[in-house]
Amino acid sequence: MRLHRLDITAFGPFGGSQSVDFDDLSAAGLFLLHGSTGAGKTSVLDAVCYALYGSVPGARQSAQGLTLRSDHAAPTTRTTVTLELTVAGRRLEITRQPPWERPKKGNRQGTTVDKARSRLREYDASTGAWKDLSRSHQEIGEEITQMLGMSREQFCQVVLLPQGDFARFLRADAEARGRLLGRLFDTHRFAEVEKRLAERRRAAEAEVRDGDAALLADAHRMQQAAGGAMELPELTPGEPGLAEAVLIAAAVARSTAREELTVAHCRLAAAESAQAAAERALADVRETTRLQRRFAEARERVRLLEERADGHREAQARMERARKAEAVAPAVELRDAADAENRRAAATRARACGLLPDTFADAGAAGLAAAARRAAEELGGLESARRAELRLAELAEERTGLDRQERADEDVLQEAEAWLAGWEATRAGLQTRIDTAQEAATRAEQLAVQREPAARRLKAARMRDQLVGDTDTAADRARRAQDETLTAKDHWLEVKERRLNGIAAELAAQLTDGEPCAVCGATEHPAPARKDAGHVDREAEKQALDAYQAAEERQAERERYVGVVREALAAATAEAGDTPTGKLADEVAELERLFTAARRDASALLPAREELRRAEQEHERRLTARQQAEIRTAARVGHRERLDRERAALEAELAEARGALDSVAARSAQLERQVALLTDAADSARAADDTAQRLKDADARLADAAFRAGFDTPQAAADALLDDTARRELQRRLDARQSEEAAVRAVLAEADTAAAAQRPPADTTAAEQAAAEAGRQLREAASARDAAARRCTELDRLSARSAAGVRRLAPLRAQYDRVARMAGLTAGTSADNERKMRLESYVLAARLEQVAAAATVRLRRMSSGRYTLVHSDDRAGRGRSGLGLHVVDAWTGRERDTATLSGGETFFASLALALGLADVVTDEAGGVRLDTLFIDEGFGSLDDQTLDEVLDVLDSLRERDRSVGIVSHVADLRRRIHAQLEVVKGRSGSTLRQRGH
């Protein structure tokens, strides 16, 4: 990597734009970057780091990057850093702009923040032009890191060599060295290996413990299943031998359970035999008891049958009479039906004759029928009269309608004549209203054209009067703001001058005995500067600067406001002219009054036109209505005469047809009722005669049937009849008696029942007690056998599961042993790791050994062959070994700790260590050439001879085509090194001055 050019704008202490030509500086091999304290030497290196990685080293980088901006820069100048360099044969240009808090555009107050920007370009030699590669922060960062092969931390240690850090590295303990080397060589992956092994060890241990816990839980279940006869091993999960002990105890428990199961089987077989014998004896006793009870019940049933013999004979006789009466039943039913029908017909005849006049009381069916025919013939003759009566009613309604139409037409004619008489006057009045409203509308349009310009002039005049006073007030405020800004600026410059004068005391306050000075690198501070009574710190300077900037913003804001007010005043004056505001207000008021009156008069135009249109429509309607009414009046005269002639003819016909009644309809209704009553009476008389004859015939047939069936009278036969329910009940009683007699005879004829009746009564209670006792003993034996079988099954299941768990746990236990041994070895806690060295420390120790070897080459030259750096892996006290660093003094032949070196010795030892570390990290990063290096401070602690030797070593770096920039304010180096880059500070910010070789 070789730097070519660096352009800085508004970055750090540089308020303007500055450029550095590294090609010119690197031509001499060594170049010096110097300047007074606080001028910004380190800011040049920060700019290089920011261009490459988008951030600066250490605490100088804020979260948003806003602190990178120069306090001396103008508000409209954006912070920009551009670096041109060559990496891996590619010439690149990187431009970065951090977030920028700038004033808002236009006349808006306040500030806004623009986002950070980045750009990466590559020079194309074939076209001689730059081409864009990316504008993404992330892509540019990844591309630069990949090409350089190192992170920002590695770059700051390898390219920007901070001597203070390496001096602390020499004096640090093993842990501090480990942290620094870990960042440089990225050994995080080895720490991750240690962490992963520890996690795997804990996970494997947890799995083994869980497996042992499950195995021990199964052992407890087996102990419960064995009834407490099993002894468990007194081991905890994770202890060796637990699995074997559990399996042995399970085998003993299974053997014992099987012996108990065999004994239970034998006891169950004996109990089953005893129970079967008891059940057979109980069955025999119960059978004897049943037969004896059966014989006794049969004897009791015989006695009951003998007591009910008389009732049985009566039922048999009753059944015989019912069978004879069944032959008479159809005749009885026929006679009863004829009698009921005759009674109904007689009642119907009496009701029909009761509705007729007394003259028909003794008339027979034939006389009633003849009277009905005569009434029907008279009713048929009235049909024509009914039609004439309906037509007469229609004629009366039609005549009434004609009278109503005549009255309506007369009203229409009178109203139309009255309205048409005033039509001409109405039309003339409406036309006058339309003409007047049209004139008012024309006048309103003319006034509207004059009204708007007059209102604008009045508004502009009022604004003109107001802005005259505002302009004077704004100008006074702007002058006061200018005075306040000048005062604040003078105060800030005075405070800044006082702080710069006392900056030495401020730096001296940060010195610590034994620690190198940030300016000269010395570890001894015999006479540090002291703060005087009026010392000004950075906070006071910042407050003064903030006050000055705030006053400057207020001044700018008020000056902008004055310009805005004056522009508004000029515009208002151009619009309003010189006419007084009062006169313009009167003119506007008069125009407004006239315009309002004209609009009010013009608003009547549309209503007047609409009213005229409606009046003309009404005129046409009235004329049409009058003509139609006259036509209808003429047509009604002939129609009325025709109706009168037809009515006279119909009234003569109806007078003859009505007779004594009021109307033909009444006479017709009277005849209809008479025909219906006579017809009903004739029908009921004929039905009564027919039913009486049928009743007489049924009585004769019933008497004949009763005689043939053997009954003295028809009533006797009827009494002997039984309905279906009574007959079935009587037959059921007879059948039940017969079945009972047969069943009793069968029981008494049974041989075993008769034999059992001869024996003494059986003792059922004793037999049942004996059978119950045998059943209880059988259940106890079966329960014992089942419990033993379940115990064996459960022990077999749990033993099989335990054996499977042991087999499954064996690989886990073996894996745990391997992982635990490896984790202990990498963590440095294993007995096999004699030096208690962690894996990461082991890797870092190898890197430190390479760094010490590379540093010794330059250290021997700087110390005239006296000192050699060596790596030590001895343990320090009770800590772990691996990162010790010693120096071998060739003058004494003794090896001692690097913390015993003096200030100057520490400087060139740390310089040699930094250069050696740069070589090792470069090789570790893939062999990327680092053609430009920077060494920051520390040369003030060297004597002249040692300084020459150190410069010779640095000058020898040119053999590898490197250029080395030394950052120092030591005056003697400005005499020895001709190529220089000077940082000059001033009130408006720092500037750069470059001098070539």
Describe the structure.
The longest helix has 79 residues, at 423-501. Strands 2-1-4-5-8-9 form a six-stranded antiparallel beta sheet. The protein is flat, with a radius of gyration of 69 Å. The mean pLDDT is 77. It is of the alpha+beta class and 997 residues long. A hairpin with a 7-residue loop joins strand 6 and strand 7 (111-114). The protein has 26 helices and 17 strands.
Number of helices: 26
Helix content: 55-70%
* Spatial strand arrangement across the major sheet: 2-1-4-5-8-9
From the alpha carbons, calculate the radius of gyration and give it in angstroms.
Answer: 69 Å
Report the strand count. Answer: 17
Low-confidence blocks of residues:
none
Morphology: flat
Major sheet characteristics = 6 strands, antiparallel
Q: In what range is the share of β-strand residues?
A: 5-15%
What is the terminal-to-terminal distance? 22 Å
Global mean pLDDT: 77
Instruction: Decide which structural class fits the backbone.
Output: alpha+beta
